[in-house]
Amino acid sequence: MAVLSDQLLIATLLIYLAAMVGYAVEHALRRPRAVVNAVRRVPAMAAAVAAPAADLPAPRTDGDNELPPAASVGRLRLAGWFAVAATALGAVTHTACLLTRGLAAGRVPWGNMYEFVLAVTLVGVLAWLGLLTRRPAVRPVGLYVTLATVTLLGLAGMRLHTPAGPLVPALNSYWLKIHVSAAATASGVFLLGFIAATAYLIRLRHDRAAEAGRAPGFVSSLGRYLPAVETLERVTFQMHVLAFPIWTFAVVAGAIWAEAAWGRYWGWDPKETWAFISWVAYAGYLHARATPSVKRPVVAWLAVLGWVTMMFNLFAVNLVIAGLHSYAGTN
């Protein structure tokens, strides 16, 4: 079973890579639309020079309803369909990889960093597929979802992998099923929220460059293919509203487990401290989001900051900083 799990991880990576290529092809097929639409507007612009300003259509910057040339519509739909189908297939093999890992180890499959990253990315992909069923317009973000997933899974497979085996005594508790599963679920949804926040900032930068008449840079130009800033900002908020209570529960459950294992609820261990820092960062995001005087870009940057603290807690605290949670690393 352990060998099968490792083979399924490789298959999952290849399938997600294929999905990423599909999303990239979809982006590429959308590229000519701005040029073609501009060419089509030339005669209309000449006729509209003398028209009253009130009769002119309002310019669009969101890009949600702009279409590529008619000849590319079929290929665009095919690329989009392939990307989503490959993502769904990858989620199936991803799930099988995690399940066979658990069967090989004879326990729940989130007892170390390698397994935790597998679980977090699976939750992120499932959350993405669920979001797609409700908001098909966000599909262009799939390129970044698969990119993040492939990056984390590749890192897990190459640097974090450990042979399947029993838990260390410190983790042999029913609280592992409760605390770590909640942390993995929240982290997966936070991952999707981070991607949406980053996409929002890229799209906003592109729109501001367009409004100022400046040529966008490479990063800003990527925003041309993303959904409207309003859509991305709303998705960012929804993901964080969903994940924050789960993360709060995970932190509280961890404190209860600490009391059962070490005789105290809180001891400012590095892992505990950074879990609390992440909680404060995300609480700050939600508070800023509910405060009208705080500008939306600042709010989005707080979401990015929250994910940075999560990654520091996962990698730096486990691999570099010594503490009571050091056994959760790669050995």
TrEMBL record:
Chief location of this protein within or outside the cell: membrane
InterPro entries according to UniProt: Cyt_c_assembly (IPR002541), Cyt_c_biogenesis_CcsA (IPR017562), Cyt_c_biogenesis_CcsA/CcmC (IPR045062)
Gene Ontology process terms (BP): cytochrome complex assembly
A GO MF term: heme binding
Keyword terms, alphabetized: Cytochrome c-type biogenesis, Membrane, Transmembrane, Transmembrane helix
Membrane topology value: Multi-pass membrane protein
Occurrences of domain Cytochrome c assembly protein (ranges): 110-325
Subcellular location: Membrane
Transmembrane segments: 6-25, 78-101, 113-132, 141-160, 180-202, 241-262, 274-291, 298-321
Pfam families: Cytochrom_C_asm
Protein name, entry field: C-type cytochrome biogenesis protein CcsB
